[in-house]
Amino acid sequence: MSWSGHTLSHIAAASGPWLPSASTSAERVDSLLWFITVLSAFFFVLVVGTMVVFAVKYRRRTPGQKTANIHGNRTVEIVWAAIPAVLLVIIFARGFHDYMDMAVPPGDSIEVRVTGQKWFWSFTYPKLGINSNELVVPVDRPVKLTMSSMDVIHSFYVPAFRLKRDVLPNRYTVMWFNPNQTGTFDIFCAEYCGTGHSVMLGQIKVLSDVEYRKWVDSGGGMSGEGMSSVDFGKQLFTRQGCATCHSVDGSKKTGPSLVGRFGNVESLIGGGTVTVDDNYLRESIMNPGAKVVVGYEPVMPTYAGKLKEEQTNALIDYIKSLGAKP
Ligand code: CUA
After folding, report:
1. Domains of the chain, each with CATH number or no CATH
2. Is the CB of 43 under 6 A from ligand 1?
């Protein structure tokens, strides 16, 4: 899988000369980073400058010149120990304060469950009954993420928010943020998790309050209202991450291409065949390990409980619309 072109251009486009800063935690992290950078630059110039001046001023001028016998200077030693000590305590205090703040989500946060799996992210809003593979949030409201993985260790990374935390199987990790500007921000996976690691991307959409309410009222844009079943299925196909593993142009990815697949008779791992009909598609979405076609690994996650009845129907209608075997 090519990671180079895609991911790098993605990062470059997202960053510009400086990383965009789009959350309250990003402001804190940047402010402390700049404080440390300026402090370090100041002392670098002070120490190296003094060193150069002294090297010139006190250099040996004649071959026989003896080095002066210098004793300690208590005042100077106390000063050069005390000033750095105070500065380090300031850095620690600021870092600790910000760390604690970033570790504890505010009580009024919007709660979102994040699921990482090979190789996409999905988001569930337990209080709203919405599933999405885009993280959509309102501006200036704290959002708490409760994250877990369906398979291996992933890492949820949002550079614009200065957020990164591992996402583990069998355990929840928690993170929160307060976006302070609207826009679309990239999510990366920052833990090598297999061949699709570099395409394990996602987006956070930060909307105005009004836009966010509209999104919630539309069921996260997943109600399919006013759309044909095929169009709705096509939208779900992208949003639910199906397209990560299944192409619709005949090329082989992690899973079989779904173009011209309907009506085929496929050989199964473990022997036997199956006709690709409505029921087989349904079974493969809900219980993907049941009948795996020869040449593929049983790696697809189940969508049982994630898709509503009409969403499952729409996906099947979309796959059917990709055509039968000629
Ligand atoms: Cu998931 Cu890398």
Report:
1. 1-54+105-221 (2.60.40.420), 229-321 (1.10.760.10)
2. no
* DSSP 8-state class, residue 251: -
* pLDDT higher than 90, residue 97: yes
Mapping DSSP to helix (H, G, I), strand (E, B) and coil, where does residue 48 land? helix
Query: For the whole prediction, is pTM greater than 0.70?
Result: no
DSSP 8-state assignment for residue 116: E
- The CA angle 38-40-43, to the nearest 5 degrees, is 110
The DSSP line for 153-188 is -EEEEEGGGTEEEEE-BTS-EEEEE-B-S-EEEEEE
Q: For residue 132, give the amino acid letter.
A: S
Closest residue to atom 1 of ligand 1, CA basis? 154
Question: If we measure between CA atoms, which residue out of 235, 236, 316 comes closest to residue 280?
Answer: 316
48 vs 82: CA distance, rounded Å? 20
d(CA 10, ligand 1 centre) in Å: 16
Q: What is the pLDDT of residues 141-194, one digit of tens each?
A: 999 999 999 999 999 999 999 999 999 999 999 999 999 999 999 999 999 999
Alpha helix ranges (H) inside the chain = 4-15, 24-57, 74-103, 209-217, 229-239, 278-286, 309-321
291's CB contacts (< 8 A; 6+ apart) are: 268, 274, 280, 283, 284
- Alpha-carbon distance values, 220 to 152, 240, 316 (Å): 28, 12, 20
What is the Å distance from ligand 1's center to 200 Cα?
6
- Average pLDDT rounded to a whole number, residues 28-41: 92
Interval between CA 194 and ligand 1 midpoint (Å): 7
3-state DSSP: the chain helix, strand, coil percent, rounded to 5?
40, 20, 40
